[in-house]
Amino acid sequence: MKSxxxxxxxxxxxxxxxxxxxxxxxxxxxxxxxxPHSVLIVPVVNKTVNVDAPDYFLSSITVPIAERGxxxxxxxxxxxxxxxxxxxxxDMVHANDPIRLAGLFGADSVLxxxxxxxxxxxxxxxxxVTVQLSYELKSGRTGEALWSNKQTLVYSPQANSTGxxxxxxxxxxxxxxxxxxxxxxxxxxxxxxxxxxxxPGQGLPAGPYDGQYQKDAQTF
Length: 220
Known about the structure:
The longest helix has 17 residues, at about 165-180. The chain has helices at about 1-15, 30-35, 55-65, 75-85, 90-95, 100-105, 165-180, 185-200; strands spanning about 40, 45, 70, 110-120, 125-140, 145-155. Strand 5 (about 125-140) and strand 6 (about 145-155) form a beta hairpin. Strands 1, 2, 3, 4, 5 and 6 form a six-stranded mixed beta sheet that branches. Helices cover about 40% and strands about 20% of the residues. It is an alpha/beta fold.
């Protein structure tokens, strides 16, 4: 079931990004040595003008990491505990010592995510929706970086052709206007997470609660 879920997420992604050169395999030496079992996802830094982006994003990231085989601390509880400890601002959290943050929960790794883009650009006949995310996992014991990834996904919906050029122009303008008024970022966010976490050689190796734990060294 997990494999099917991952395939469903990744197939649309490949259709969006097209054919690209394979990126260089990530060096997992520090990750393997640290051998993290749990992941503390701290509040997200939002570098965009969309104030709702962090909450929407956080609702999409927990499941794929848990399905990869790691214990994930509940994100709402994490936010509340950090706020009670004087860390209500995401920028302050990211600037804080990861060892201290991990110590608040007994976590052995801390995931930092920055939202670089979460926007929709309107151009009369098309609206382009873009999501750009940066991920970094740090050790909760030493504070060193264990893994990082960056994903950019772009979607531009197209109206179906009717064979009538005038009607097609009107339909395209309406589609673009609707998309601009209420763009749906979540499919892009979920696909970005899938690309960042599951892709061999770039994503997260299987965690201790996954059957492939310490068996996927050849692909990761």
